[in-house]
Amino acid sequence: MLQYNGAVGPILENAGEFNVNRGRALPYRFVRLMVLAASLGVVLQGTAAAIQWRPLARTARHDVAVDMDSLKLTPLGRVTVWLRFTPLGEPQRKLAAGEYGEKQYRLHLEYYEIDCSEQTDVLELIDIIGPDGKRLARMKGGGPLAAIFPGSALDLAAKQVCPSFEDETVSDDEVETPDSNDTEEASTQQVPEEVRARIAEALQKTQKSPGNQAAWRELGNAYYDGDQPQQAIEAYDRALALVPDDADILNDQGAMYRQSGDFTRALANFERALKIAPYNLESLYNVGYVNAFDLNRMDKAREAWRRYLELDRTSETALQVQGFIERYGK
């Protein structure tokens, strides 16, 4: 079994025993992952050396760190990584100890496989660590791949461990040094032209008809698609001032709050949307996800997920929700 004593990094005993879908061809990007594996420090065989925990994020209850020396490349082209979740204080530690059923809980480790090309993940293992680095329990995960939620700790980890291919064929001679006059326009240029056109058109509509709720919604959606959360939040605020009980806008604005790191306001939006539309599947999914992965309120998350499955059991999202319950259910 895997051993952990606080000085030696987590070792995956059966690293090659992953489920392989033999009916599916390996993704094209797998080959490119192999080419760049060495530059990432990813290995195909062997064990991890001394732990190199790198601070990653802070949630409402945990400091999250990533072990960059735990990276491996699986036969399916997924990158594996360990994350460490350390409670921020004694109240948070006791709460986690109750959730995991281990009174001596001090922290826990989570072992993920990340599909960099698809931006999905599967949680394979959870190790509960007690005093002196002793492993108290191991929980096995598995299940279907789930989408990595933007802005989550796992999303930040994926950005660190996944290679970027966009510029890999550009030679040094082709790299241009930006002119200082272009600095102000850099962020705007990153937004696709089609989205920038939508933003401009929606802005014109809101200026001509400030009382047009649909125009403010359209502007918020354009900023949303342009990955500009603060501008989207402000546009949605204007739309909600005109029609406060729009569950769809509340959900979209909640997603932008979450992307900007304001998990409490994101959850408030999703819960308000759910009160307005009790059978809204998007709201149920969002309430469960934020409670689970941002606020570590697994009881609330499971409640939302079970309600979701009462309404939908066949969609792709329902399969993800079922996977969450199997993974985190008690």
From TrEMBL:
TPR repeats: 213-246, 247-280
Keyword field: Repeat, Thylakoid, TPR repeat
Listed InterPro entries: TPR-like_helical_dom_sf, TPR_rpt, Ycf3/AcsC/BcsC/TPR_MFPF
Region described as Disordered: spans on this chain: 167-192
Superkingdom of the source species: Bacteria
Species this protein is from: Oryzomonas sagensis
Presence of the UniProt keyword RNA-binding in the record: no
Acidic residues composition bias: residue spans: 167-185
One Pfam family from the record: TPR_16
Coiled coil: none
Protein name: Tetratricopeptide repeat protein
Gene3D superfamilies: Tetratricopeptide repeat domain
Keyword NADP among record annotations: no
